[in-house]
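Page 37, continued from 36.
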């Protein structure tokens, strides 16, 4: 069974040519997913898009969310990546979650939201405490709007408090991060395969 993943990089850096630690963490997960025959189709730099504020699936002229929404729902697994800012997920990540609120009113005849049967995992980086709080924010919100969260669904790295080293600056990926990425990918691929073969009844 072929499974496809899409990654959202919710860094505050809009320029995709600018190095991002979130991209580096997504790359670690992409390698782990490849070992389970899951293809990462694309990594979207969300800050480069014009995602308008709101809680509908189309906020009108100039809104890039409808196209991104379609892309997200065309995949089996979503890698939701982002940095920790002020101890919590980035404002870009929160904007994506707010737009997914529309799923609540977009159910099919069985009451299933568009995200039903799709799996989400997190890729989080930062130089301060907050990885657990950030993943808790993401997973609670995404579960509310229909995503399925597998066991061990977050791969993260946080540097020394008040430090200056970013994940992208490390000479190699720490062994615990690689091990966690393998578990995240294995569990998410297994769960996505099960749900693709046998969708929720609603």
């Amino acid at each position: 069974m072929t499974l496809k993943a899409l990654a959202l990089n919710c860094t505050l850096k809009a320029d995709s040519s600018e190095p991002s630690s979130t991209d580096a963490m997504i790359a670690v997960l992409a390698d782990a997913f490849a070992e389970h025959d899951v293809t990462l189709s694309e990594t979207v730099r969300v800050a480069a898009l014009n995602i308008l504020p709101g809680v509908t699936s189309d906020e009108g002229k100039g809104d890039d969310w409808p196209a991104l929404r379609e892309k997200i729902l065309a995949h089996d697994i979503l890698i939701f990546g982002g940095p920790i800012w002020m101890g919590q997920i980035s404002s870009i990540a929160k904007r994506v979650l707010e737009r997914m609120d529309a799923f609540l009113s977009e159910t099919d005849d069985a009451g299933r939201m568009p995200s039903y049967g799709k799996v989400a995992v997190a890729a989080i980086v930062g130089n301060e405490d907050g990885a657990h709080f950030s993943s808790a924010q993401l997973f609670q919100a995404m579960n509310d709007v229909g995503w399925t969260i597998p066991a061990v669904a977050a791969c993260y790295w946080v540097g020394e408090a008040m430090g200056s080293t970013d994940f992208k600056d490390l000479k190699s990926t720490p062994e615990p991060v690689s091990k966690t990425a393998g578990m995240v990918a294995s569990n998410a691929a297994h769960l996505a395969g099960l749900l693709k073969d046998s969708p929720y009844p609603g």
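DSSP finds five helices and six strands in the chain. Flag for discussion at group meeting. Residues 3-197 form a domain with the Rossmann fold fold (CATH 3.40.50.360).
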